[in-house]
Predict the structure.
Amino acid sequence: MPEESPSIVHDVSVAAAVGRRALPNRLCTAFTQSLGAQRAALSWLPRLEHWQLLHATDEPALQAEAAQFTRADGPSVSAALGMRPVFVPDLRDYPCRTGPPLYEELPGTRRVLALPLHAGHTPVGVLCLYYTERADVTPSTSPTRSAPSLSPSTR
């Protein structure tokens, strides 16, 4: 029987077996490795004013999430509240409604992919991927998918 390559499903299954405390870390790690991002943050969002960071891969990811939720504006907030993925191909072009441009608070971040987590019609969180290097992340052309099509290769 041929050996299967590692997948996000496998990583999530292993993380669940390891324990709940390890799950946010494993999810961030699995998504960054699988989708070619350099940073990630997983936030729980029962209500916008009660945002809680569950895990950030590093200090810049933590600061990026904090900046977005403090100002209630940014890809993570938009994805969570809109319950649809938000892909920002160039952070310098992201229109901020509040405060200085978001790219000023996220030095080195080129692209952002925010993936919402929801239960039915209720937003419960967001997984945000931060790209500091050039990566192949492009909007999907499939009419049934609103999420971007991603490739882990970098240029």
